[in-house]
Amino acid sequence: MELDPRFADAGFKFYYVTQKPDGTLVREELVRSSSSNVLVETLSAGTLGLLPVAIHSTYNIENLDINILHPAILVLTKFKRWSTSYTSTRPKTIRKVASDRSDIQYIIAWLAEQREPIRFHEYEGKTKPELLAMIRKYHDKYTDDVEQMDKLQSIMADEWEDMLALPEPQVESDLPP
């Protein structure tokens, strides 16, 4: 907002404004005048058990001077949400699952390219076996995507066999019995 005029807030919501600001409109006026804003969803640390309360590992996005949760930990937050929702038949949840899968694919590719392993030990709120079980669900669902599975294995080489040794996950369903 002060650092980058393409971001604006309206009340408690935070937006990326796609139309170039002209400098005369500020904050809520800027949000109201642009028709194609992107709502930026944010969570406080510790919210819903998705993010650690104290973030020790961050990654600085080049040219923006923004620190984010390191992708080697962020991917676990994506796996967590994906693993709890991937069987849903609700349209809104299906869109979230698709978005999470896209994020997971991107982060896995980035981590593999950087030769950066997943940092299980830095994720707070779930044990390593619980995290591996979430990844096992993803693995079993997309096992035919050989390229993706090869990249995933490359970023969790020490944990790959442990993950495969876990019992096959039960397929969950949001359909009533």
The coarse silhouette is: elongated
User: Largest beta sheet, briefly?
Assistant: 3 strands, antiparallel
Rg over C-alpha atoms, rounded to the nearest angstrom = 19 Å
Unreliable stretches covering 5 or more consecutive residues: 50-54
Number of E strands: 5
Question: Spatial order of the strands in the main sheet?
Answer: 1-2-3
Counting helices, strands and paired strands, the structural category is alpha+beta
Helix content: 40-55%
* Strand-residue proportion: 5-15%
* CA distance, first residue to last residue: 49 Å
* SSE ordering: EEHEEEHHHHH
Topology (elements, then pairings):
Elements: E1 7-10, E2 13-16, H1 27-33, E3 38-40, E4 58-61, E5 66-69, H2 71-85, H3 91-114, H4 128-141, H5 146-154, H6 160-165
Antiparallel strand pairs: 1-2, 2-3, 4-5
Helix pairs in contact: 2-3, 2-4, 3-5
What's this entry about, in short?
With 177 residues, the protein is of the alpha+beta class. The protein is 42% helix and 11% strand.
